[in-house]
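Worked example (supplementary).
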Amino acid sequence: MGDTLQALLHGFEVALLPMNLMWGAIGVTLGTAVGVLPGVGPALTVAMLLPLTVKLSPVGALIMFAGIYYGAMFGGSTTTILLNTPGESASIATALEGNKMAKRGRAGPALATSAIGSFVAGTIATLLVTLLAPMVVEIALKFGPAEYFALMVFAFTTVSAVLGASTVRGLTSLFLGLLLGLVGIDGQTGQPRFAFGVPELLDGVDVVVLAVGLFAVGEALYVGAYASRLPEVMEKITGSLWMSKSDWKRSWPAWLRATAIGFPFGSIPAGGAEIPTFLSYAVEKKLTKFPEEFGHGAIEGVAGPEAANNASVTGALVPLLTLGIPTSATAAILLAAFQNYGIQPGPMLFQMQGDLVWGLIASLYVGNVMLLILNLPMIGIWVKVLTIPQPLLYGGILVFATLGAYSLHESVVDLATLYVFGLLGFAMRRWDIPVAPAVIGLILGPLAETQFRRALAISQGDPSVFYQHPISATLFAFTALLIVVPWVVRRVQRARAA
Amino acid sequence: MSTDAALRRSLAETALSIGVLALGVATAVGTSMLPAEGGYARIGPNFMPGVTGAGLILLGIWLLYEVLSGGWRNMPPQDAEARGEHAFHPGAFAWVSIGLFAHMALIQTGGFVLAGSALFACVARGFGSPRFARDFAIGFAITVAVFAFFVLVLTVNLPAGWLAPLFRLIGIE
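After joint prediction of all chains, the assembly is encoded as:
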């Protein structure tokens, strides 16, 4: 405990250095902006900025990337409430009540409860990260390759098979990512795989090209083809921004409950901020004293989901930092940013790179305060940002997207690959195949393979290591339950209905 | 849903399912050309590719099975209006693509600024902006600012291309 406090205080010394404060401010501002702008998300933004890592110090760059990561959750609510087009999937639940509130002239309180709720949830979640991370590190230090492999299989399963509309489409996306992750030189034997003698492919498929292709080019092709000629209705902020006494009274419990729902969802490698937002919405709808308002702009229905998504994305930093397991596309790209510096997140990160990891955690406290200021008193600026016409917005997105891909190796090959991944992203979006599992598969696949082969090398090729170690056996059992239980439940329900 | 739309949907789903299956088969073929020896672990660099190929083949079969038994499950509505969108706009798709190809063709000759401006204008056109020249000018202003930022602040060189003399004149190099 005392050690943690000391480490955190030291982290604040790092986070409060003027340079790092500046990177943090840039990060949360960019994060808010991309959260606000439809069509740009945190995964895309961090991916576009990854090539810059060669020019920046690891601490500054990671503080900035983390700011983009959780800042986007603040900004997303603005678009959702005023435009009814959720900027991020984690904001869909907010749209249910938020836009209704705006239509009734209560945009101000809706934005306020989002921003303050995000701040409250983000800060409590950061506190929990601070307390929990060192404990998880203690446990993780006992993990061997078999346990890591089991954990990664668990994460693969939750992000692809359990969440989302279809297990088979989620898995297809994951395996596509795993396949792309195999391209290049095998790290353990030096054997080139699926490179077809093309020198550009020996280095593997860059996550920047994949993520930017799927998220920017694919998105532009899709929105252009299907949603570029729709009328947009933006609600105005009329009246006071401030919440009334009853708004406060109704928001507080929702924020706290949502934090309690969101944080665990983020911190077990279960991925995705969507589920906790919908759970929180359902809980608020059940507990409210004003059920008649639900569906017409109930403030709890905004306060809950907005707090839940912030608690969840902050919670996701626990498995990312302590175990090296990303549970969302953005977290996977953050992991790639660490790798660009030759740093592998995991328990050793806390021992070898204390400055970096505690500076990063301290920057979360600072960033949340900055975000509260950015998203409440300065809300007017973001409303202006929303008025950028769609043609110019997407023109700009693609200029930066191609810049990100080109600046990797100054190669037209990367631009052509970018377009191919864009077509893939278009098809996946159109036929409802989720893209996040592919990005996670690309980043986590090679790590999982390494752990798998290491575990077998230690056991001299005996596969029983995976079920004789209690931790890895438990994780595999959990994974099996995750797949089997929903399937059985559905069967039973269907049998009952029949 | 009209029968025409239903047919188009199942054609697309069939094509995509077969694509996944074919990718799995190609992966399996590629795997068979990889060495198997693995030292202590007894599995070599061909193990994961084999698993991935097998997985893709199974997923392809599963997807095909869904097509044949009523179509992919839990799909968003085939009708664009029911999704809150409009019908496929081929012009938009084409202009975004043209922009990206123009960018590829121009970046190493015309340079970053001209390639980016052309891309910007084409994409804006695809999204329905009627003012190509104005959009090109906006793209030009944005890309010149980015170019200056990269060259002067980050000291990363982007291709100046045909505009190199101009940049030299105003001191960005």
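Two points are worth noting when inspecting this output. Chain B touches chain A through 76 residues (CB under 8 Å). Chain B has two domains: 3-83, 90-169.
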